[in-house]
Amino acid sequence: MLGIVELQPLAMVLRRLASVARELTDADYAAIGAYDDEQQLSDFEAVGVSDDERDNLRQPPRGAGLLGEFARDPVTINIPDTGSHPMATGSPEGHPEMGAFLGVPVVYGSQPIGAFYVTRRPGLAAFSEEAQAQLESLAPYAAIAIRNAEALELERHRAETQASLDRHAVRDAVARDLHDDVIQSIYAVGLGLRAGRGGDLDAKNQAIDRASVELQAVIADLRAYITRLSADPAALDPAEVLVGRLRELVAQGGQRPAWTLDFEAGREADEPTLARQIYLIAREMISNVMRHAAAGEASLALRQDGRSLVMSVRDNGRGFDRGAVPEGAVGLRSIEQRVADLDGSLLIESEPGAGTVITATIPLSDAPED
Predict the structure, then answer these.
(1) Which residues, in sequence order, are CB contacts of 41 under 8 Å at separation 6+?
(2) pTM of the model
(3) What domains can you pick out in the chain, each with its CATH number?
């Protein structure tokens, strides 16, 4: 009984139940059917039928006549000849001939959810009261087993549906990111090249250098998106996606500067929208280092400090005078605006010849209390 009620697919459960019913009643053939919500025979498993008999059967029973009687009137039927019952309508073409018939309804609560059918070949004895009692004793366990199997299949269907929704959600997120990040980045590259076209040779070279760095960032983004599309949505961790994108980004810079990445953020930083904003800020910080710092070494650190997320980029490059930076400098202005949009603060520490440290502190409103 314990083996019968364990969680297994419905077809496997029904086959096992049919086999047990055949053994308990010493039947030649045994079957069990399960009903759908409209009390129609939806699943049917039989044992005792030879391969030749199965091949000759044009179609499986559909629950008409005697087989469907238990959905309408769930009481045991024990008769010496199948054809003698008033509800008998005959067997499907190719079905083996049957004599004695014993049918026992499978009821869950007050609702019939299926039935056992056991038969013997023509000319053999009818089923005894003991055989009937054995099958009736099996029926409550069969009801539990069928309901368990149906619940299992429903849960699997829900899981498959959720997986499909997750895949679509990932694709939608990638589509938004491609529009918000990659397409706008490429558009910005075009504007920069156009602006440099009218300047002197130095301005043109600077525009080309900046475009090269920005296109490398676009390539890193595209690789990260491809990774996300090919991954299992259920296994995607926003923090891991963020780290992967940043590693791709710094790898585009070649040997100089040599980057060190240090991530110690807690799970509160895993929220996809926040992770995306952190990436955009970090991308601009990294891009500034590659374009302007002439550094040999640089580092990016991300850690959680109480109810705040702290991200800093440090380099040992040429440094700069913050007061001398033009108001129209796109890189710093973009960083400052994104940090401000997150209600954060930005600290820039730099001086000519002494390198640069830029630290962004972003509040985490949902972080737990210490």
Answers:
(1) 33, 34, 35, 61, 62, 63, 67, 68, 71
(2) 0.48
(3) 2-157 (3.30.450.40), 255-370 (3.30.565.10)
